[in-house]
Amino acid sequence: MLAPRHDASTNEVQPACSRSSQRRHYLQRPGRTAVSGPTPRYSAWALLRARLAGDGYWRPLWTGRKLKEAYDVVVVGAGGHGLATAFHLARDHGLKRVAVLEKRLVGYGNVGRNTTIVRSNYLLPENHYFYEDSLRRWETLSRDLNYNVMYSPRGVVDLALSDGDMCALARRGNAMRLAGIDAELMELAALERFCPELAPRAARRFPIVGALVQQRGGTVRHDAVAWGYARAASALGVDVVEDCEVTGVRAAGGVATGVETTRGYVRAERIVFAAAGHTGMIGTMLGVPLPIETHQLQAMVSEPIKPVLHTVLVYVFPGHGETYISQSDRGGLVMGGHQDGFPSYTREGRWDRLEEVVEGAVELLPQIAGVKILRQWAGTTDMTMDASPIMDRLRYDNVFVNAGWCYGGFKTIPASGAAFASFVATGTAPDLIKAYRLSRFATGHLLDERGGGPFPVRL
Amino acid sequence: VTELTCPFCGPRHLREFEFHKTLPAADAGAFARVYERVNRTDLSVEHWQHVGGCRGWLLVRRNPSSGVVLAIHLVGGGGAE
């Protein structure tokens, strides 16, 4: 491939500016802004053409589109769910005028802050059918988007520490198998064969007795999901507009007519909110109190090391501890645990939670004790009162909200995008998401997957 | 937030405390009290319990955007303020 050319203009000292304008500068390097037209499809043939065409053949993945005055659908939030919804609106329902408005940057929120795990090992039928639809879509997503999202079915291992744990996992595994989802209950010997790096007979505070394994679960490169959807949506004519915060909704005669933004008023036939941890604020903005609380969920990654772990381990240990850990293709150990446990918008994580997650990780894999943590961060999660999502209308007939993804939003992006786009385009919720209506809290049809009662956190 | 100041025990590490719930608006009915949340970005009024200390129930006012604790009282009143 062509070596990057030295360009004196990029060495200039940039004036102090926000992160997003720095990013725009990066995207619009000299020699790239002048080129217009659709992003080229990735293929071996495109590689060859790019070699012959020289510099300027590859374009930015999505272009900084100008905000128009009116749209068929305005999607608020350029995270995974918002971009996927816009992509499916354009591809499956032929809507030509769709915009995704983003307060900060594409992928700034939870789509770039999660631990990249995908799985469909849920207990309740409403949940496991929906999450399984998503897992099936992950399997083909790279082809659908023409962008490699690096889906890696490396297995998700839920560890059991007691006979009681094994019973609970057997129940969940059986529920999954009845729904046609792969699940294997492994006794200790089978677990040792599947995951020898775990050394389950090592001296531990809490002995491992077995596990529930979903082999098709695994990881997906999270940033690639945001970029892939943004690129694919942009190629279909969707305007992805960054640095554009929605500050209000205008309505007339009981119908929403558009959104107020920091870049002016935009008319919209339909409005979709996919604002994750900031959905509670949107409820406040529209005068509708939602059964949502915003909590911090933190994650961390170690320095890159040689392969030590080939699968995803989920370890819930006594004393409310939890660790899930996998190793990225770059070699970093990606770890997370419980939420911080109280409402917050700070995007900081509490120190003792980090300590607890690392404790669990080192107990599972004692050989990583000397590895350094490279980065730690937190995301704002929209916790509902039954830990299941909300996909419904909000106050107005033409305002839709896709929220309440709690700690599980990333894995559902492909299914959520397809189903929600269908809901927004046709006005009728597909069967797959009917259980996620907002009224379930009032009618008592809760989806309490965790079995924890009307609290957003585990107590 | 790394510590909270218990009106009874003084400043203690956050891990000694357990968040219970955010409090609804004063005039809320039963449904709203259980399920609906106020979701203000500048103020959160909460019940916590000092489970790792005096086990007292605390009324905590915090700014959830900055993380600053504005006030802590024992729910039943009293304490060493």
Describe the structure.
The complex is a heterodimer of chains A (459) and B (81). Chain A has helices at 19-27, 44-53, 80-92, 125-145, 163-178, 188-194, 222-235, 279-286, 351-364, 413-426, 440-443, and strands at 70-76, 98-101, 117-118, 156-160, 184-187, 210-214, 218-219, 239-241, 246-252, 255-261, 264-273, 292-302, 312-317, 321-327, 333-343, 373-384, 390-394, 396-403. Chain A is an alpha/beta fold and 459 residues long. In chain A, the strands form 3 sheets. In chain A, strands 1, 2, 8, 9, 10, 11, 17 and 18 form an 8-stranded mixed beta sheet that branches. In chain A, strand 9 (246-252) and strand 10 (255-261) form a beta hairpin. Chain A is globular and about 65 Å long. By secondary structure, chain B is mainly beta. Helices cover 7% and strands 38% of the residues of chain B. In chain B, strand 4 and strand 5 form a beta hairpin. The two termini of chain B are 21 Å apart. The model of chain B has no long low-confidence stretch (mean pLDDT 90). At the A-B interface, helix 8, strand 12 and strand 15 of A face strand 3, helix 1 and strand 4 of B.
3D shape of chain A: globular
The radius of gyration computed from the alpha-carbon positions of chain A, rounded to a whole number of angstroms, is 23 Å
**Proportion of helical residues of chain A:** 25-40%
| Spatial separation of the terminal alpha carbons of chain A | 55 Å
Low-confidence stretches of chain B: none
Note the run of SSEs of chain A as H and E: HHEHEEHEHEHEEHEEEEHEEEEHEEEHH
